[in-house]
């Protein structure tokens, strides 16, 4: 065979080999499901970002976001093994420890809980302590049993007589200048301003000493024991998703959010992102130099001790079973911040 023919034959063989290689599928992606705690919103943006921009796929994951909502039971789905991860919170996981349910926080996306109290402008309410002067505080049942107990224990003047049930309608608050209501930093103040035309006074509990983590990545001890690599990859990819959502093009993620929750608006999304940045909801404390998602024993214990003081938790509860620090605080994704 001439050299020319040999070269043609070799080229044909290499071409065939390339075709065969292309036809062979790569490693299958690990299927993972993450249940959120409410309807899709900017507060879930990093997870949607990692789906939209291919970050999860880059980490070998095929992730389904299971949307929460008023009729969802995603925490129960995690306990029963129907989903792999859930958007939990410090209080829920410590409660699970006391009940013998092996749930574990593996990342804390929100270093600060976005829970706020909202008051009228020009009503003499300038500081958090001033809220104790108001006749009425509209609070949900969970808030009344937890952070309101904390408020009464740590600030003078708050009393049970102020409490009225909050029915997730701002109307009663708007109508009563001598009242305040609970809310989320990133949502209710925006809606109230839209309805009234005035900007409400907003007091973030986290900036006044109330310290739970929020918007966690929570899983089961079994998942950690049997699939630690999947847990690590999901945590790392989610953290990268959050950096990209906050600091890069997040338009595709927002489209996915609006697809899951058609009532969500661009205005609400923009407001939520701005407030998360302004108040350091995602980036503050340990996350500033150790990366988004960081969990520390010191932070977790501080919240536990606060709750023990108001008899929410038992003093002998092994709170450390509620979390692990092994998957976070490694500076993952920090180079993506622009």
From TrEMBL:
Residues 1-23 form the signal peptide. Residues 42-243 form the SsuA/THI5-like domain. Keywords: Signal. It comes from the Bacteria. GO terms for biological process: thiamine biosynthetic process. Coiled coil: none annotated. This is NitT/TauT family transport system substrate-binding protein.
């Amino acid at each position: 065979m001439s050299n020319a023919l040999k070269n043609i034959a070799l080229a044909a063989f290499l071409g065939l080999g390339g075709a065969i290689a292309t036809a062979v599928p790569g490693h299958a992606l690990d299927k993972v499901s993450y249940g959120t705690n409410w309807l899709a919103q900017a507060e879930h943006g990093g997870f949607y970002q990692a789906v939209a921009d291919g970050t999860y796929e880059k980490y070998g994951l095929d992730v389904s976001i299971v949307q929460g909502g008023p009729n969802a039971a995603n925490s129960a789905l995690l306990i029963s093994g129907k989903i792999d991860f859930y958007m939990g919170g410090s209080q829920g996981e410590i409660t699970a420890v006391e009940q013998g349910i092996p749930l574990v926080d593996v990342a804390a996306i929100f270093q600060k809980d976005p829970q706020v109290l909202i008051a009228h402008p020009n009503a003499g309410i300038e500081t958090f302590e001033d809220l104790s002067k108001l006749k009425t505080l509209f609070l949900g049942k969970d808030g009344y049993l937890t952070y309101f107990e904390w408020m009464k224990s740590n600030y003078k003047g708050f009393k049970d007589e102020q409490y009225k049930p909050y029915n997730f309608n701002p109307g009663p608050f708007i109508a009563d200048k001598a009242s305040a209501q609970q809310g989320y930093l990133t949502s209710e103040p925006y809606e109230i301003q839209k309805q009234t035309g005035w900007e409400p006074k907003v007091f973030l509990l986290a900036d006044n000493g109330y310290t739970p983590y929020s918007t966690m990545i929570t899983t089961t001890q079994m998942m950690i024991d049997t699939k630690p690599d999947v847990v690590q990859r999901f945590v790392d990819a989610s953290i990268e998703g959050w950096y990209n959502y906050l600091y890069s093009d997040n338009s595709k993620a927002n489209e996915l959010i609006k697809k899951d929750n058609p009532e969500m608006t661009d205005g609400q999304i923009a407001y939520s992102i701005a407030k998360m940045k302004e108040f350091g909801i995602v980036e503050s404390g340990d996350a500033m130099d150790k990366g988004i998602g960081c969990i520390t024993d010191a932070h977790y214990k501080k919240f536990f001790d606060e709750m023990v003081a108001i008899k929410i938790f038992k003093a002998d509860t092994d709170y450390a079973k509620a979390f692990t620090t092994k998957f976070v605080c490694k500076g993952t994704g920090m180079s993506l911040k622009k």
